[in-house]
Each structure stands twice: as structure tokens, then as C-alpha cells.
Amino acid sequence: MRILRAAGYRVMPWKNGGGTTTEIAVSPDGAGIEEFDWRISMARVETSGPFSSFAGIDRTLSVLEGDGIVLDIAGRPPARLTPGSAPLPFPGDVPTSATLIGGPITDLNVMTRRGRISHTVERLSVSGEVEIRPSDGTTIALPVGGSVTVLTDTATSLGSLDALVLDQESRKLRLQPEGQGLLFVIHLHVTAANG
Description:
A six-stranded antiparallel beta sheet has the order 2-3-4-11-6-9, with no helix packed on it. It has a five-stranded antiparallel beta sheet with strand order 1-17-14-19-12, with no helix packed on it. The model has no long low-confidence stretch (mean pLDDT 90). It is mainly β. The radius of gyration is 16 Å and the shape is globular. It has strands at residues 2-4, 10-13, 20-27, 38-45, 49-50, 57-65, 69-73, 79-81, 88-91, 96-100, 105-113, 117-126, 130-132, 138-144, 148-151, 156-158, 163-167, 173-177, 181-190.
């Protein structure tokens, strides 16, 4: 079990230069845009416009703050995403543009390299204790809008946007939210083709 504190996240420009992104975690550690196997980040979207294209990457997007966006993904009907919406998976290498519904938003972006890693993103509304079970790869829990306590031998607090990282050797953990909040649970799996 590792805890990544939001205060230590790395901020960098978007691939297309249109804004900034806050990197929560990346594998391998320190990998750049072209080298990562998986990457979890948050972005502040200030204006409508095209998304960066990422060849060979699968993405899942969730809105954390703001009114939301409408995503126009080539070959699909427009998708409206708000803070109450389920996470939306889509290929990172098809033309995609976003239209803001009512002002800037902050989004959560999970990206994995197709053929190496696959992922799922769960959005849980929590008011009581929840159990996190590690998957066969890496599992990351990210509270949004409130703190949670990790109930282990010694209780550890996770603030909003701090990340709890579990590998497949970790035991299941219980999390106790402090009030009502959201918890994003991201499962990252090595694909069979990659061993």
C-alpha cells in the first residue's frame, strides 16, 4: 500500500499546449507522454476545443468539478458528461472534441496503452464503510470532495484527491468516509499478450 498526496502531484502542459494537467500517478515511474503504460491525471479545461490525440491509448474520462462537457467522439453520438455521470471510456486516438456546458471543469483522466494494460473506472457514492479489493494488477482509490480513513492496524487519513495505491499482493482494505463523498476506484490489468 502506498499513499500519494495531492500536494506532491506533478503539473505539466497538455500534449496540445491548450492547458495543464496534474499527474496523479504514472507507470513506469517518471514516464513521459510517449512511454507510459498507464497514467492517471486531472485536467482543468477552461475552453471548448479538440482533445489531444494519443496513438494506441484507451481513455476513460470523468468530470470532477464544474457543470460538465459534451464530448464529440468520432463515430459516436455526442456524450454529455457531468459530475454525476458514470465514467466514459473511449479510444484516445480517434478525433474527439469537447464543448463546455457552463464554464471550466476539472476532469479525471485514466489512460492505458492498448495491448499492454487495460483498465476499468468505478465511481462510487459513499456514505458508509466500503471495502476495496486489490485486482490482479494495480488498484487505485481516489476520494473526491471529502476525506476517508483507511482502516488498517493504524488508521491513516486520505484527503480529497489523495491516492491510495494497492498492488496485487495487498490485502483488501476498508475505507471509512468522513461524511458523504465520492470514491473513484481504478483497476489496471496487465493484458494476456503482455505476460
